Amino acid sequence: MVTKKQIAIDWLTRYTGMPLDHFGEYVLLTNFRDYVSRFAARFNCEVFGDDRPMQAATNSAGLTIINFGIGSPNAATVMDLLTAYHPKAVLFLGKCGGLKHATEIGHFILPIGAIRGEGTSDDYLPKLVPALPSFKLHKFVSEKLVERGFDYRTGVVYTTNRRVWEHDEAFRKQLQEYTPISIDMETATIFVVGHKNQIVRGALLLVSDLPMTVEGIKTSQSDAAVSRKWAERHLEIGIDSLTEIEEKGEEIKHFQY
Q1: Does pTM surpass 0.85?
Q2: Fewer beta carbons within 10 angstroms: which end of the chain, N or C?
Q3: CATH code, domain with 24
């Protein structure tokens, strides 16, 4: 019988082009090829996978970054593939749309949970199982945000599999009734599949648009402006958080609930 681990080892290396022994014990996940390029330039390390579905790089300290693409199916895939070696912690650096008046473009969101509106996570655990991060990991991230004096919010994220919904009044009304602080396409999936696979996981989201207002809907120009201003800070917080955990030798245990 072929085991899940055998499949994961084969597919992780095939999708990224990076040998298994190059992956580090701490992993940053992102949707952006640019983040991988910035990471590689910062640490002068090789980028694997330019001809593959995913790109990856690992620095000399054993911190890995992976661009897994966009959407909940890709998020589930990478969290399954990481069972090839079970890293000590995984932090997702993604963008989200702010849904509350208190959220502004450039704010960071450290989600305390996510609403499972994407459907993908239903293939892993029953719908009533909450999508939660590993809170000790989030503690390290919050400390880094406070140290830098960055504005950040906590709250519940709504994760959807719909990329184009801004025109849909019924969906917008539903969002208001659920009262999430933001909306994205991956967080709930990462939390649930991470829980299923017993992988410590977290997410730090950057508010890149305000989709409940016409003028706040994301465009190519507005997204590029957000990246220019905030991407480097976003990446730095992720790097510093996971590096500090490694340096302190902190063990973040996965607990079944």
Answers
A1: yes
A2: N
A3: 3.40.50.1580
